[in-house]
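Lab notebook, bench 4. The sequencing result for the construct came back, and we need a structural model before the next group meeting so we can plan mutations. Quick request posted to the team channel:

Model the 3D structure of this chain.
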Amino acid sequence: MSEKVTNVSLVGVGGQGILLTSDILARTAALAGLDVKKSEIHGMAQRGGSVISQVRFGEKVYSPIIPDGASNLLVAFERLEALRWRHLLAADGKVLINDMNMTPVTVSSGQQAAVTDLDDRLRTEYPSALYVDALTIAKEMGNTRTMNMVLAGALSTLTPFSAELWQQAMRERIAAKFIDLNLKAFEAGRARGAASAS
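Done. Here's the predicted structure in token form:
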């Protein structure tokens, strides 16, 4: 087995379920028998502030910090955050973008101008990104709070781990009364990711 370490950066804004998603990814890798390290950076503590969580897994992982330009996978829970964290992605890295826009606090409060050419910039920076409209899929599932598990499902198609391992990790981290709905959202996201990959 190689010493290769896989680096995953999950970025978005507070309240989107990023930390739970990264916990489940880390647990999935651990269940697969790999060494795992995880780090988190919270921006503004209130909902709407930037959040980044990084997960590294492999036979042996020495540090939880992913250097700039070394993320094999960048998972953006919001389109503007995909642009903001572009510097994290490795040259041959893959990108999963939740196809939604959230107006940052800095823009809505007038401290910063809105990005007007976001579509063009995303196309330029990420010509082969996988886009998933996770919010719409979560609404179809009956609960918008499962948006993060829709993204986890799409992300699972970009990892070497089986759906069963992901589901086991979800069962360990999600309360029993919510697990069925979240598993359904995960499956919907996984189907969307698999369809895009083929």
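The chain has a mean pLDDT of 90.
Will bring this to the meeting.
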